[in-house]
Write a structure and sequence with these properties.
This protein is of the alpha+beta class. The chain is 32% helix and 19% strand. The structure holds flavin-adenine dinucleotide (FAD).
Length: 347
């Protein structure tokens, strides 16, 4: 394809942003100075004249022909239910206080704090809790930053803009936690020209979160205000099926809504995402059905395996085996997401 100067950014705007398909992963924000992230939305500041097409190359939604380099063998279409893995286990942070400050078993926060302590990472790109505006990407440099970013915000939050910032600042040995789309964007970044490999080398490891979908922040915010709930809420939860609930913790306690009441706010781009378990991560983490306070953990790479093994052997992590029934559910849920996405994509 002949690259016209303005065509990369123009294509991204036309085929992703203007079609409402942007999933707000943040990968283009700060990579190209003309993209910014504000209050749950990616904003185009100006026309970009670079002919590198970097924004398009890293976009996890840009799957149309001729817009990105060959992704080699990483295409998730061929990877079965949950992608490639070495082992699936269940785990939780051994420290009770750490679990209390986390979403479920606190494995994500525990591995980050452990890795900082050991010097495996110098910082971590995480998602903050937001305040006056939406949650966004944060460069965490110590345990208290990691705790501040603990738990789940169910809106996509431009997290990878913080990675672009960290790389620009010259940082290396960075841990990244993100959604499947964000892990996909990182894989695309690794394969991107002209400097994807160099940028990628700054990342020590990637922790992916399971994700069925994420909600548009502004729509969720308006919904909560209408229900007289001040944001940011103390905590959110979507308990595993069959609960069908969206739960919000306020100063006065938990308020439950039918999951259907927030489904209209699911980002359009999430409906064509085929990846539930963050297949491009080193370690993927989700909830565990039927055993409160534990996480399901997919160990995918040697990097992921080494961290889990050493965190366990040094007493930071409690580990147990995953029941066959849970494994079947995980496969089923993951395949169902893939089928739904392929149907939606075809429509
Ligand atoms: C949008 C979304 C959808 C999810 N859907 C599912 C699902 O369908 N099934 C399932 O099993 N699990 C799902 N999860 C994952 C689950 O909620 C927990 O994040 C995961 O189990 C890790 O738990 P933990 O106790 O180890 O987390 P913690 O130790 O508390 O760490 C949580 C980490 O999540 C990061 N984070 C928080 N919000 C976001 C965000 N919006 N974007 C990117 N990173 C974020 C924080 O930076 C923090 O590092 C979802 C999470 C999110 C954010």
């Amino acid at each position: 394809m002949e690259a016209h100067k303005y065509e990369g950014q123009h294509t991204l705007i036309e085929k992703v942003i203007n079609k409402g398909l942007c999933v707000r992963c943040g990968a283009c924000v700060g990579l190209c100075p003309y993209f910014d992230y504000f209050d749950g939305t990616v904003i185009v500041m100006d026309k970009c004249s670079a002919d590198t097409w970097r924004c398009l190359q890293v976009c996890p939604v840009a799957d149309f022909e001729g817009t990105r380099p060959d992704r080699g063998t990483t295409g998730i279409e061929n990877s079965g239910g949950i992608g490639r893995f070495k082992k699936v286990i269940i785990a939780r942070a051994a420290d009770e206080d750490m679990r209390r400050q986390s979403q479920y078993g606190g494995v994500a926060s525990c591995l980050l704090i452990y890795s900082l302590n050991k010097g495996f990472i110098k910082s971590a790109v995480l998602t903050d809790k937001g305040g006056k505006f939406s949650p966004g990407g944060m460069i965490a440099k110590g345990p208290s930053d990691i705790f501040d970013c603990g738990q789940s915000r169910y809106s996509a939050s431009g997290t990878l803009s913080a990675l672009n910032r960290a790389i620009k600042e010259g940082q290396d040995r960075i841990g990244v936690v993100g959604l499947p789309c964000q892990m996909d964007a990182l894989e695309r970044m690794r394969l991107s020209e002209p400097d994807g490999k160099e940028r990628s080398r700054r990342i020590a490891f990637k922790i992916g979160l399971f994700c069925t979908w994420a909600i548009d922040y502004r729509a969720l915010h308006a919904f909560l205000i209408e229900k007289s709930i001040n944001t940011p809420a103390k905590k959110f939860d979507i308990p595993p099926p069959p609960s069908e609930k969206f739960c919000v913790q306020t100063e006065k306690g938990w308020v439950d809504f039918p999951l259907d009441s927030v489904r209209p706010f699911i980002q359009k781009g999430c409906t064509i995402c085929r990846d539930m378990t963050a297949e491009n991560a080193d370690i993927s983490i989700g909830t565990l059905e039927g055993r409160e306070g534990w996480n399901t953990v997919i160990i995918r790479t040697s990097v992921g395996e080494d961290i889990i093994n050493s965190a366990e052997s040094e007493g930071w992590l409690d580990v147990d085996s995953l029941a066959d029934e849970n494994f079947s559910h995980l496969m089923e849920a993951s395949l169902n997401k893939r089928k739904r996405a392929l149907n939606n994509y075809a429509e």
